From TrEMBL:
PANTHER family: BIOGENESIS OF LYSOSOME-RELATED ORGANELLES COMPLEX 1 SUBUNIT 1, BLOC-1 COMPLEX SUBUNIT 1. It comes from Amphimedon queenslandica. One of its GO terms (cellular component) is BLOC-1 complex. This is Biogenesis of lysosome-related organelles complex 1 subunit 1. Belongs to the BLOC1S1 family. It holds the Pfam family GCN5L1. One of its GO terms (biological process) is endosomal transport. The lineage of its organism: Eukaryota, Metazoa, Porifera, Demospongiae, Heteroscleromorpha.
Amino acid sequence: MLSRIVKEHQEKQSSLREEQEKKKRLAIAAVQACTNSMVDCLNEGVERAYENQRKLDKESKALQLHSAKYVKQTTQWLNLVEGFHKNLKSLGDLEQWAKTIERDMKTVMGTLEYAYHGTDEVHVVKDS
């Protein structure tokens, strides 16, 4: 009788251990599935953030290239305008120089006419 009770107890303990082992395996599988699900969810957000960062970096580099090109073009335009301004100023100086030469030539011409004709009358041409 005692051996039967011990045997029943051992069988009960064995079945309890098996049941606990099954529950343990089920719990471990559930925890792994939950962990995998959470990691996948977090990875999705991280992947999206990484893709956005890559796009921002690409657009930032493109913007830098366009800005550098714009600065270079603007500098060229400024140099052209500055050169045009200098040339325009030179034309103004040249025009003034031409007027001065013309006035001097008219004076010389009047003096030569006076000397050539031998008259007392001096023809002075006035500036316009």
